[in-house]
C-alpha cells in the first residue's frame, strides 16, 4: 500500500530545487566566466608592423568597447548572486530533518545489539521507572516507545515483524513525498497558478519561439540576409558580364547596410554636411544617374561613397563617417563570398536549362572581378597600386617605384630589387620603419601547387575518357616570400641570403599563349598512364567476380585438365623418388631447386598482394572518410597584414580550374580556409569530348593583391568507352535454364527415353 503526500514542510521540494538549479547554474557560470587573455608570441611581437595604421588598429582592438565595463560588472554581479542563492538553498536543504527514520529498538533502549535477554529486561525496568507517567518528570511518549521496543525484542511475533517489515506492528503503508509544496495545489491559489501557466506556456514560449524562427529564416548559414542573397542572384543573372564598377554597385545594395534590416546602422543628421564633399570627389564612379532599385536608395549611395573613400584612404570624421566605414568594410569579405556563391548557383542552374537561360551564365571575368574586389577592400587599395599593401608607402614612394627607371609595379618585383636600391627608395625612413617594410614583405604568401587526375569510379583510374567523372587532387603549398638581399646582409629572420626570389604568378604572356588554339595533339602524359601489372590484376579480379557463374559450363573441361595435370605430377613425383633413391646428391640439388621455385612463387604472390593493396588504397583515396566529413571546418591560417580592416583577418583562398581560352569555369570555385603550410583538396568535373585541352589552375587570395597563383596544364581525353548493353541477371537466368534443360535431357537418356523417341512413338 502506497501513500502520496505533498511536501508540507518543504524539505523534499528543496532537494528537487537544488538538483534542478545546479543543472542551469554550472553551464551559466561557464558561459559568463571571463576568458583569459592569450599571451602573444614574442617572435610575432618582434616581427609585427609598427606603422601608424597598425598601431591605431591594435589600440582599437585592445581598448574596451562602449559599455564593456558596465557589462563586465553586471556579469560578475549576476554570477555572485546566483551562487549565493545556490549556497543558501543547499544549506537550508541540509538542515531539513528526515521524515523517515529506521526503527531501532536497541537505540531506544540504549543498549548494544549483542545484549542478552537479561540485559534487555534490566534496561527496560530502569528506563520504565525513569519515564513512567505516574512519576514526577515522567514522559508518556517515551514510556510507550520503551514498552514497544521491549516487546519487539522479547515477544516472538513483534520481533518477527520488526525483522521482516522494520516495525513491530507489522507492514506499514509506504509514503512518497511529492517534491512540490502544498500551496501549489491549494484551492485558494488555483487562479494564480493557472495564470502563471498561461503566461509561461501560451504567451512567453510562443513569442520566444516565433522570434527565434523569424530571425533564423532571414539569414543563411553564413549569417547573410536572404534578401541580400536574392538581390545578388537577380543582378548577377541580369548582367552576366560586369566590370569592377558594376560589382561595387551591386555590393553596395546589400541590405546589411540598410537600417531597416540592420540595427547597427546609424543615420545621422551630420551626413547631410559630411557626405556632399565626398560625393563630389567620386561623382564619376558612384553612378548617381542609375535609377535601379535599390542602388538609387540613400543607404546604397552612402555605402558606395564610403567604399570609394576607403579605397582612396581618405581621412573621415572619426566619430561619424569613419564608424560607418568600419561597419561596411567589416561585412564586405563575407558579402563578396556570397556574391561568388551566387554566381556558382546561377552557373549550376543554367547548365541544366535547355532554354534561353544558358546565355545568362556569369562570365569568368565577372567572377574574377568579384574575387578581386575582396583584397582591394581588405587592403584599402586599388588594383594598380598594390604596392600600397606594404607599410610606410606613400604616393611619392609609389611614383618612384613605378617610374620608367625602376618599373616596379608589384610586390614580387619589389622583392627582386637589390637591397641598396630598396633602401635608396626609402631613404627618408628610419631603420625600424624600413624593417617594418621588410617584415611585411617577407610575410607575404607564395603559393606552389601540384595537380593529379584520376577517374576513381573506373577500373583504370589513370585513363581519362570522354564523359568520365575526373577527380583533380590539388596540393597547395604556402611559403613566405623570399627577398633578394645583398651578400653579407640578413633577412628579418636572421638567415643570410643572396638573390633568391621565387616567381609566384604565371606571367601574362604565358596566359595569353594558353588562349591560342592548340596546333597539335601531344602524347598522353605520364600521369595518365598506369602500371600494366596493376591493370592486369584489377581486370583479372573484375573478370573473376563477374564471370563466376559463366564458368560453370566449362567446369567439366577444367576438371579433366586438372586430372591430367595431377597424373603428370604423379609421374614426375615417381621419377623424382626413383632418382632420389639412386643418388642422394641429386636429391639435395632437387630440393634446393624446389625451394628456389617456392620462394619465387611466394615472391610473385606477395607482389600481387602488394599491387592489390596499392590499388585498393588508390580507390579509397577518393572516398571521403567519415571522420573527415564530421570534423569541423577550421578557419585559422595566417594573419593578414591589413591595418585598414577593422578585424583580424585570416588568409583564405579560392581554388578552381578554368578554361581561359573560352572564358568558362571547369570547376566551381572552392574556398580554402586553413592553408597553413600544405593543403590537399579535390575538385571534380566531367571530362570533355575526346581531345587535348589546356586548362588553368587558379588560386586567388581574398586578402592580398599580387599573390594569386596560376598554373597551366594540359588534359588529354581519350575516346569514350563503349557501353555494352548486357543484363547479367538475364544471362545468368538463361544459363540456369540451359543447365536445367541439359540435366533433364541427361536424365531422360539415362532412363532410356528421349524426346525424339517419344515423338517417334506418337507417330
TrEMBL record:
Family matches, as InterPro entries: C2_domain_sf, DnaJ_domain, Ig_E-set, J_dom_sf, Sec63-dom
GO BP: post-translational protein targeting to endoplasmic reticulum membrane; SRP-dependent cotranslational protein targeting to membrane
Cellular component terms per the entry's GO annotation: Sec62/Sec63 complex
Amino acid composition bias (Basic and acidic residues), ranges on this chain: 573-585
Domain J: 104-166
Biased composition (Basic residues): 530-552
Keyword Chaperone: yes
CDD domains registered for this protein in UniProt: DnaJ (cd06257)
UniProt biased composition (Low complexity): 745-754
Main localization category: endoplasmic reticulum
Keyword line: Chaperone, Endoplasmic reticulum, Membrane, Protein transport, Transmembrane, Transmembrane helix, Transport
One Pfam entry name: DnaJ
Superkingdom of origin organism: Eukaryota
GO molecular function, one term: protein transmembrane transporter activity
Compartments where found: Endoplasmic reticulum membrane
Annotated protein name in UniProt: DNAJC23
Species lineage: Eukaryota, Metazoa, Echinodermata, Eleutherozoa, Echinozoa
Amino acid at each position: 500500500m502506497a501513500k502520496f503526500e505533498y511536501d508540507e514542510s518543504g524539505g523534499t521540494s528543496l532537494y528537487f530545487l537544488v538538483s534542478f538549479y545546479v543543472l542551469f547554474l554550472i553551464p551559466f557560470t561557464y558561459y559568463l566566466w571571463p576568458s583569459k587573455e592569450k599571451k602573444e608570441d614574442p617572435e610575432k611581437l618582434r616581427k609585427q608592423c609598427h606603422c601608424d595604421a597598425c598601431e591605431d588598429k591594435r589600440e582599437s582592438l585592445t581598448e574596451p568597447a562602449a559599455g564593456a565595463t558596465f557589462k563586465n560588472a553586471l556579469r560578475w554581479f549576476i554570477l555572485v548572486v546566483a551562487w549565493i542563492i545556490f549556497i543558501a538553498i543547499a544549506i537550508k536543504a541540509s538542515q531539513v530533518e528526515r521524515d523517515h527514520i529506521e526503527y531501532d529498538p536497541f537505540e531506544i533502549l540504549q543498549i548494544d545489539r549483542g545484549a542478552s535477554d537479561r540485559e534487555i529486561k534490566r534496561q527496560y525496568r530502569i528506563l520504565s521507572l525513569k519515564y513512567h507517567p505516574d512519576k514526577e518528570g515522567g514522559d508518556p511518549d517515551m514510556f510507550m516507545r520503551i514498552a514497544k521496543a521491549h516487546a519487539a525484542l522479547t515477544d516472538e511475533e513483534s520481533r518477527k515483524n520488526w525483522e521482516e517489515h522494520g516495525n513491530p506492528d507489522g507492514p506499514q503503508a509506504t509514503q512518497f513525498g511529492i517534491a512540490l509544496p502544498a500551496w501549489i495545489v491549494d484551492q485558494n491559489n488555483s487562479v494564480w497558478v493557472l495564470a502563471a501557466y498561461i503566461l509561461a506556456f501560451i504567451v512567453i514560449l510562443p513569442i520566444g519561439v516565433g522570434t527565434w524562427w523569424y530571425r533564423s529564416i532571414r539569414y543563411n548559414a553564413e549569417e547573410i540576409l536572404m534578401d541580400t542573397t536574392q538581390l545578388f542572384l537577380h543582378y548577377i543573372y541580369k548582367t552576366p558580364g560586369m566590370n569592377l564598377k558594376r560589382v561595387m554597385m551591386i555590393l553596395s545594395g546589400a541590405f546589411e547596410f540598410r537600417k531597416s534590416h540592420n540595427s547597427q546602422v546609424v543615420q545621422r543628421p551630420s551626413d547631410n554636411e559630411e557626405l556632399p564633399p565626398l560625393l563630389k570627389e567620386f561623382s564619376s564612379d558612384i553612378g548617381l544617374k542609375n535609377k535601379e532599385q535599390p542602388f538609387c536608395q540613400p543607404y546604397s549611395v552612402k555605402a558606395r561613397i564610403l567604399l570609394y573613400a576607403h579605397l582612396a584612404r581618405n581621412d573621415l570624421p572619426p566619430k561619424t563617417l569613419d564608424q560607418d566605414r568600419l561597419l561596411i568594410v567589416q561585412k564586405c569579405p563575407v558579402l563578396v563570398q556570397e556574391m561568388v556563391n551566387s554566381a556558382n548557383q546561377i552557373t549550376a542552374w543554367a547548365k541544366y536549362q535547355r532554354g534561353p537561360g544558358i546565355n545568362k551564365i556569369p562570365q569568368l571575368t565577372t567572377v574574377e572581378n568579384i574575387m578581386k574586389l575582396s583584397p582591394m577592400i581588405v587592403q584599402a587599395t586599388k588594383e594598380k597600386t598594390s604596392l600600397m599593401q606594404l607599410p610606410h608607402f606613400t604616393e611619392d614612394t609609389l611614383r618612384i617605384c613605378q617610374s620608367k627607371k625602376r618599373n616596379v609595379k608589384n610586390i614580387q618585383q619589389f622583392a627582386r630589387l637589390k637591397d641598396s636600391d630598396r633602401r635608396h627608395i626609402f631613404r627618408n625612413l628610419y631603420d625600424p620603419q624600413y624593417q617594418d617594410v621588410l617584415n611585411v614583405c617577407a610575410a607575404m604568401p607564395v603559393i606552389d601547387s601540384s595537380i593529379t587526375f584520376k577517374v576513381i569510379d573506373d577500373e583504370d583510374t589513370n585513363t581519362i575518357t570522354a564523359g568520365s567523372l575526373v577527380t583533380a587532387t590539388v596540393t597547395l603549398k604556402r611559403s613566405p616570400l623570399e627577398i633578394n638581399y645583398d651578400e653579407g646582409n640578413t633577412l628579418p629572420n636572421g638567415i643570410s641570403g643572396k638573390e633568391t626570389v621565387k616567381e609566384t604568378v604565371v606571367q601574362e604572356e604565358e596566359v595569353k599563349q594558353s588562349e591560342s588554339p592548340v596546333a597539335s595533339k601531344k602524347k598522353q602524359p605520364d600521369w595518365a598512364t598506369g602500371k600494366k601489372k596493376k591493370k592486369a590484376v584489377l581486370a583479372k579480379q573484375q573478370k573473376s567476380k563477374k564471370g563466376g557463374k559463366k564458368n560453370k559450363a566449362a567446369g567439366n573441361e577444367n576438371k579433366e585438365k586438372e586430372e591430367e595435370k595431377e597424373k603428370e605430377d604423379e609421374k614426375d613425383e615417381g621419377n623424382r623418388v626413383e632418382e632420389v633413391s639412386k643418388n642422394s646428391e641429386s636429391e639435395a640439388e632437387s630440393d634446393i631447386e624446389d625451394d628456389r621455385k617456392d620462394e619465387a612463387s611466394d615472391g610473385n604472390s606477395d607482389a600481387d598482394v602488394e599491387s592489390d593493396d596499392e590499388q585498393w588504397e588508390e580507390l579509397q583515396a577518393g572516398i571521403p572518410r567519415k571522420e573527415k566529413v564530421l570534423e569541423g571546418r577550421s578557419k585559422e591560417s595566417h594573419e593578414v597584414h591589413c591595418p585598414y580592416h577593422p578585424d583580424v583577418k585570416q588568409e583564405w583562398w579560392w581554388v578552381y580550374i578554368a578554361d581561359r581560352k573560352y572564358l568558362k569555369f571547369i570547376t566551381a570555385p572552392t574556398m580554402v580556409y586553413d592553408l597553413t603550410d600544405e593543403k590537399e583538396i579535390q575538385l571534380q568535373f566531367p571530362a570533355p569530348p575526346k581531345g587535348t585541352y589546356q586548362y588553368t589552375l587558379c588560386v586567388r587570395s581574398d586578402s592580398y593583391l599580387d599573390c594569386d597563383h596560376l598554373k597551366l596544364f594540359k588534359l588529354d581525353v581519350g575516346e569514350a568507352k563503349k557501353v555494352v548493353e548486357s543484363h547479367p541477371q538475364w544471362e545468368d537466368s538463361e544459363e540456369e535454364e540451359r543447365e536445367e534443360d541439359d540435366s533433364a535431357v541427361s536424365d531422360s537418356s539415362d532412363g532410356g527415353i528421349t524426346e525424339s523417341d517419344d515423338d517417334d512413338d506418337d507417330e
